[in-house]
Design goal:
By secondary structure, this protein is of the alpha+beta class. The protein has two helices and four strands; from the N terminus they run ααββββ. Strands 1-2-3-4 form a four-stranded antiparallel beta sheet, with no helix packed on it. It starts with 8 loop residues before the first helix and ends with a strand.
Length: 85
């Protein structure tokens, strides 16, 4: 769900490498899990834009990185929610 459907295969492979075998993989996983948890629980979420039926944009403070405001957009494509671009 955190990989956009329109992401080129080379970018998808690079993202997967960042999460699995790159030197920063542990930190990448930790940050991704923290962001998912923040969105799920609403912790630090300032607001949600979009109709929340076909698009939802979450604005939140990153739970682990100080002074890091995040904006994460999701789009529903054929019943599946995916990250946007």
């Amino acid at each position: 769900a955190f990989v956009p459907l329109d992401l080129p295969p080379s970018d998808t492979a690079a993202y997967l490498e960042d999460l699995t075998s790159a030197p920063e993989a542990d930190g990448q996983w930790t940050n991704l899990v923290a962001e998912i948890a923040a969105i799920r629980c609403g912790r630090g979420v300032d607001r949600i834009e979009g109709d929340q039926m076909s698009k939802a944009v979450f604005f939140f403070t990153h739970p682990l990185l100080e002074k890091c405001d995040r904006e994460v957009a999701f789009t529903c494509v054929n019943g599946e929610w995916r990250a946007e671009g």
